[in-house]
Amino acid sequence: ELKVEQNPLFLSMQEGKNYTIYCNYSTTSDRLYWYRQDPGKSLESLFVLLSNGAVKQEGRLMASLDTKARLSTLHITAAVHDLSATYFCAARMDSNYQLIWGAGTKLIIKP
Amino acid sequence: DTGVSQDPRHKITKRGQNVTFRCDPISEHNRLYWYRQTLGQGPEFLTYFQNEAQLEKSRLLSDRFSAERPKGSFSTLEIQRTEQGDSAMYLCASSGLSNRGIDGNTIYFGEGSWLTVV
User: Fold this and answer.
1) For residues A20 and A77, what is the distance between their CA atoms, to the nearest angstrom?
2) HEC states along A41-101?
3) What is the DSSP letter of A59?
4) Is A41 on the interface with B (CB under 8 A)?
5) What whole-number distance in Å separates Cα of residue B63 and Cα of residue B79?
6) Residue B1 has pLDDT above 60, yes or no
7) Cα(B93)–Cα(B73) distance, integer angstroms
8) How many CA within 13 A on the CB side of residue A65?
9) How would you classify the pairing of strands B108-109 and A105-110?
10) What is the mean pLDDT of residues B36-49?
11) Beta B75-79 vs B113-117: how paired, if at all?
């Protein structure tokens, strides 16, 4: 059974700092997703990672995938207040289209 | 609006009543998903359609839940005899190649339908 764990679950940081959110999954998965969610809102797609070693960057966010370690990371560079949100990773089960989600990382960036 | 749209956005219902949510996916997306999310949790998969065929259904989905996608376009999710534990946000998402060059690997979510059962 595929399980997805994120850590930390809560992160408070200062503007301008760098930090990394980790996403571990328990069995093989053929793709890894990162989403952002603002309070009371829906899920905004950030990245889809399809293969080992994949790295994608958008602005101050960079995501990577290591399928051998079953680990994906979301790195935040020089954080700004607007990045405050909850970030979810989700892994897709190999044999079907179901996404298994982490519990989310609530990120608060203080000015 | 070219995104996934859901209706209604909010629904308050009394326990025991039936509710129905509608989802209109991105035009020509052949894959459609329903998820449920409660406060402070990640989404939970409910069901998946490829065109009009319901190919996957979560064990979480009791007999009170039913979903349809009759013509492979919009979908409905019905909950019969609602219970307080059904209170959640119901999210619809779609994916698949479209004729407007939208990435086929990305799953796009709608704004969600909030259900409160009192």
Assistant:
1) 9
2) CCEEEEEEECCCCCEEEECCEEEEEECCCCEEEEEECCCCHHHCEEEEEEEEECCCCCEEE
3) T
4) yes
5) 9
6) no
7) 12
8) 22
9) unpaired
10) 93
11) unpaired
| pLDDT tens, position by position, A87-109 | 999 999 876 788 999 999 999 99
User: How far does Cα B19 stand from its chain's mean position?
Assistant: 13
Q: Look up tokens 């779609």; give the residue.
A: B94
Best mutation site among A42, A51, A88, A101 for testing chain B: the one with the most B CBs within 10 Å?
A: A42
Smallest CA–CA separation between A79 and chain B, in Å? 23
Q: Phi first, then psi: give them for residue B49, nearest 5 degrees.
A: -120, 140
**In this predicted model, what pLDDT tens digit does every residue of A20-67 receive, in sequence order?**
999 999 988 889 999 999 998 889 999 999 888 899 999 999 999 999
Residue entry with tokens 């129905």: B20
Q: What angle do CA A32, B3, A57 make, to 5 degrees?
A: 35
Take residue B103 and report the two structure tokens written for it. Answer: 């990435």
Interatomic CA distance for residues B90 and B87, integer angstroms: 9
* CB A83 within 8 Å of CB A99: no
Direct distance between the N- and C-terminal alpha carbons of chain A, in angstroms, rounded to an integer = 41
C-alpha to C-alpha distance for B75 and B69, rounded to whole angstroms:
4
